[in-house]
Amino acid sequence: MKVNVTIASKSVIILTLQGDLIGEQSGIGLLDLLNDHINDGKKNLGIDLSEVRYMNSSGIGVLITILTKFRNAGGDIVLINPSEQIRKLLVITKLNSIFKVFSTVEEAERFFIN
After folding, report:
1. Residue 17 belongs to what H/E stretch?
2. Domain regions of the chain by residue span
3. CA-based end-to-end distance of the chain
């Protein structure tokens, strides 16, 4: 899995994921990276899932862990442009009621500004 981090504002970062989100090895590195940003005062996160092909239960666990970390830091996370398969997975697991989902990065950024 490839990861790209963009600083959107003083308190918002956008995380773009490419490939498969299957937890384990990629999840540990991702959590370490995000901990550094939380420690630097970035409290809000948009996760762009448009290029994620597949996500398993470990990947869902990674998303929930990230959500917990950011909410504990006083922030929030949103999901951006998940594929149809990922959307179905969010509905089946009822996580669509926990995660806010936006179609574009711009919509997600506006959410955090308001």
Report:
1. strand 12-21
2. 2-113
3. 32
Element (H, E) at 57: helix 57-72
At residue 86, the pLDDT reads: 93
Q: Which two structure tokens, joined as six digits, stand for 96? A: 């669509």
Other Cβ atoms less than 10 A from the Cβ of 73: the count is 18
Condensed to tens digits (0 to 9), the pLDDT of residues 54-96 reads 999 899 999 999 999 999 999 999 999 999 999 999 999 999 9
What's residue 11's pLDDT? 86
Question: Is 2-113 a CATH 3.40.50.1220 domain?
Answer: no
Query: Range with the lowest mean pLDDT among 25-29, 57-61, 99-103?
Result: 25-29
Q: What is the CA radius of gyration of the chain?
A: 13
List of long-range contacts for 32-38, beta carbons under 8 Å, 24+ apart? 33/3, 33/5, 34/66, 34/69, 34/70, 35/69, 37/5, 37/13, 38/69, 38/70, 38/73, 38/75
pLDDT value at residue 27? 75
Contact 79, 16 (CB under 8 A): no
